[in-house]
Design goal:
Length: 364
């Protein structure tokens, strides 16, 4: 297990210094050759217990625990990025959708990067990665081209993609950000362990003003089945693929939950306690191979999500859940608001096949 400090509870939503040695310590490494692509691909993830407890400021005031499972989609890792050094002194950001270039952003001056903290600006996530990762300094007296020439001997072309639909609830934006951080740092002659990437991604989201917690990048970077934990009143996040026997969501939705937390709404506070306990129970069920217990955790988790985000269960979702209930050990919806994919733990493979056909007929 690795302990890495992040934010103190007293700081609320204010992030720490950019290159704080407490959470992000890049090491120098050799620059790759010009024109060589560096690629990172990541799985999606589903949260199976504990979501909402990883969200600042809740996670460092109360403490959080999330059990999550990394997934391939249609047999492939759906999220990725690649970077290469180029001789031109500029940054080229290319966003790919379904294998086709959908947008291209070229930055040749520092002011081209200044909208990195506006989530809907073109290439905002890629710009924020360069700024928050310390690759480019907006406050420098050097121009963008001078920084690129002096520090890296050229510019960068970055391509990013996701094969998941918008609103999937499977952590797309945070996982993509983590993939970008990994390859951009490496292309810039820097390296960082995965815990540093996890924390830097959390910082990127805070700087972009989108908020969000740490579960997505933990699931996408660590892979497999993990529990992520943060300790309240201290300032650390750590992960374990075999937990010890111890004890991108919409901004408006996030703000509503945070307001209720600051008001110490008794139901929200109680639910946060229950979320953390349930995540630990679910992780132990995975260790024991007790799929019935895992299914029970899924069902209880969905009830807790409905408390945190009232109205997230629409009539269509209710109908689908009722249709597959006879064949399921447990059912939940991905993402904080429950608006993404539905995932079902089937009782056995044959029932899974029938369940898929039955659900498709209901969904149509």
């Amino acid at each position: 297990m690795v302990l890495v400090p992040v934010y103190s509870a007293s700081e609320k939503l204010e992030p720490p210094p950019l290159l704080s040695p407490f959470f992000f310590k890049p090491e120098p490494s050799e620059l790759p050759p010009l024109g060589k692509w560096l690629t990172a691909e990541c799985p999606a993830r589903i949260d199976v217990s504990g979501g909402w407890s990883d969200t600042p400021p809740i996670t460092y005031e109360h403490g959080g625990a999330v059990t999550m499972v990394a997934l391939l989609v249609n047999g492939k890792k759906p999220v990725g990025a690649r970077v290469k050094r180029i001789p031109e002194l500029k940054l080229v950001f290319v966003i790919i959708n379904n294998g086709v270039e959908s947008s291209r952003v070229v930055c040749e001056e520092l002011h081209d990067l200044e909208d990195y903290n506006q989530p809907y600006a073109s290439g905002a996530l890629l710009k924020a990665t360069f700024i928050c990762g310390g690759i480019i300094d907006l406050e420098s007296s050097q121009s963008l081209s001078e920084q690129l020439q002096t520090n890296y001997g050229g510019g960068f072309e970055i391509q990013s993609w996701s094969n998941l639909p918008l609103g999937s609830g499977m952590g797309t934006s945070s996982i993509l950000s983590a993939a970008l951080i990994g390859v951009i740092l490496r292309a810039a002659g820097k390296s960082c362990d995965r815990m540093g990437i996890i924390h830097l991604e959390l910082y990127v989201e805070q700087m972009m003003t989108t908020g969000g917690g740490w579960q997505d990048q933990v699931g996408g970077i660590c892979g497999g089945i993990h529990i992520g934990l943060s300790e309240g009143e201290t300032t650390c996040v750590y992960t374990s693929s075999r937990p010890e026997r111890k004890t991108r969501l919409a901004r408006n939705l996030l703000q509503d939950v945070v307001r209720n937390w600051y008001a110490r709404n008794p139901l929200i506070v109680e639910t946060e306690d229950n979320l953390v306990a349930l995540a630990q129970e679910c992780s132990h069920a995975f260790i024991d191979g007790d799929l019935k217990k895992v299914g029970s955790c899924l069902d209880r988790y969905w009830q807790m999500k409905k408390i945190m985000a009232p109205g997230c269960e629409t009539q269509i979702i209710t109908t689908l859940m009722e249709a597959v209930r006879p064949f399921a050990l447990g059912i939940c919806m991905a993402g904080a608001g429950g608006g993404g994919f539905m995932y079902v733990l089937a009782q056995d493979p044959l029932k899974r096949c029938y369940q898929t056909t039955h659900t498709n007929s209901k969904g149509s």
